[in-house]
Amino acid sequence: MGKLVRDKIPEIIRQNNKEPVVTVLGDTEYRTALLAKLFEEASELSAASPAEVIGEIADVYEVLRAVAEVNGYDWQEVEKAAEAKREERGAFRARLYLA
């Protein structure tokens, strides 16, 4: 079974004297693969050591940017929506846990 990879991964594989088998996904398959990748990256973030956290956050961020783009949003729109939600509902800084 395959997985969605970053754009330069096939070239990196070729530099290691291997030939990758690559398929370009259509819109529906791409959306599905992005969501699967988001869960994969979130799981890796959950298991990351303190030294690995920043790299895993970067991976989640990159997938989220792609999800926004495939759904017709640029990242500035996402940031505006996030700010509006923060103003309306707050953020997570107070560390509140509702039991």
Largest sheet: none
* Inertia-based shape: globular
Helix content: 55-70%
Give the radius of gyration: 17 Å
Q: Low-confidence segments, ≥5 residues, pLDDT <50?
A: none
Number of helix segments?
4
First and last CA, distance? 40 Å
Number of strands: 0
| Proportion of beta-strand residues | under 5%
Find the structural class using helix and strand composition: mainly alpha
Spell out the helices and strands N to C. Answer: HHHH
Overall mean pLDDT: 97
Structural overview:
62% of the residues lie in helices and 0% in strands. By secondary structure, the protein is mainly α. The chain has a domain at 26-86. Helix 2 runs antiparallel to helix 3. The radius of gyration is 17 Å and the shape is globular.
Which key terms come to mind for this protein?
single chain, 99 residues, mainly alpha, 4 helices, 0% strand, globular
Summarize the structure.
With 99 residues, the protein is mainly alpha-helical.
Strand and helix layout:
Blueprint: H1 9-15, H2 27-47, H3 53-70, H4 75-89
Helix pairs in contact: 2-3
